[in-house]
Write the structure tokens for this entry.
Amino acid sequence: MIRVVLPAHLRTLARVDGEVTIEIEGPATQRSVLDALETCYPVLRGTIRDHVTRERRPFLRFFACAEDWSLEQPDAPLPEAVAKGKEPFMVIGAIAGG
Amino acid sequence: MSGVRVLVGTRKGAFILTSDGKREKWDVSGPQFAGWEIYHVKGSPADPNRLYASQTSGWFGQVIQRSNDGGKTWEAPGGGIKIVPGEMPSGESNKFVYDTSAEAGKPLTTHQWYDGTQHPWEFKRVWHFEPSLTDPDTVYAGVEDAALFRSSDGGHSWHELAGLRGHGTGPKWQPGAGGMCLHTILIDPSNQERMYIAISAAGAFRTDDGGTTWKPINRGLKSPYIPDPNAEVGHCVHHIAMHASRPDVLFMQKHWDVMRSDNAGDSWQEVSGNLPTDFGFAIDVHAHEPETIYVVPIKSDSEHFPIDGKLSVYRSRTGGNEWEALTKGLPQSNCYVNVLRDAMAVDSLDSCGVYFGTTGGQVYASANAGDTWAPIVRDLPAVLSVEVQTLP
């Protein structure tokens, strides 16, 4: 089980409260986690990653175990604590705008 | 008794304003999609309860919302929750992918940037929805960077009508201050194969074959602020309006100049007449009088607020050239708001109602064709768009 923390607007869009939990097969990576998330919640497709390039949207960052994973390779293994559900994978929106 | 439903898109959500045919007392609901920019909300002429909303954000991109009950509830088409991991999502309702196939006229990937260099085409948001006149599941979307998309499954999937970008002038299009947006879509009710669109800053275009092929229709436009004032493309058209009974007659609010065409856009003539300034964004036509048109003159360059702080709608009953100021009920001092291009609409009740929203968050209504005005609401977020549905 993977725990995912979403920004408030994406929780509203996906109609969920609090953390989201998802199941994945194989190694826990940014790509596998986000693929599974978008499979469970199709409305999130295109809101975290670009539809075509699959790149992270510019005003979003990914954190795990208090470290910034935004610039890591999408297939790099996430920390074991995330893979085991002890720590969440966090999608964080930039603090910007009014 | 019949009534009206006013669909308001703002910087921070959508609002729905409803009233009976008297249009004196209003119910205000919202915000829907609070915190998101709602560029446009529009109902289907074929099914008034089918609404489409463009929900967009600098953080999270584009979301398409659809309602089947007049805005009481909404869904992202095909975007419902799936609880079976591994099953592929069925919904991609926010997927707008430019067609760069050879069939589209060769890979068209760049347009002109502000500095004259070529710049990649990048999808940013949907500015305008135009639902089909006959099929609630068919809807057109005008997007930034400028292109026209169509959905025939209720907004679930979108396909570009690539003949517009591919017809040859695309590399000369360039963004205006608000981005390179396709903001106006008009469908000829007498011949739905004919459509008009407008782009800032490229100009107006027409198709006569349902969107397969397009041609620029900018002859007669003069824009002294571009290198060739009479260019085939490059004009900053702000909005175009049409009366359903005379689809060959078009009225245009250009960056500067109010223009008119009597031949489906083949040529244009200026009808700014005695307007105090012919800069503006919004333009619309009276529901029952095809020669009665409305604009909101705005001071420019760059100020973009009413002259002398006096908010005025101007009405022409002669199809242009002769204009009268309509100010009763509108602020006549210290008013420095703007009225954006998609923020004016009319209803079709016997006494035509006229509506517009401002960047100050007011939505004004006139139940007597503009003679007098009153605010429906005063303190919404900045209004981006106003559409009106006349309900049975």
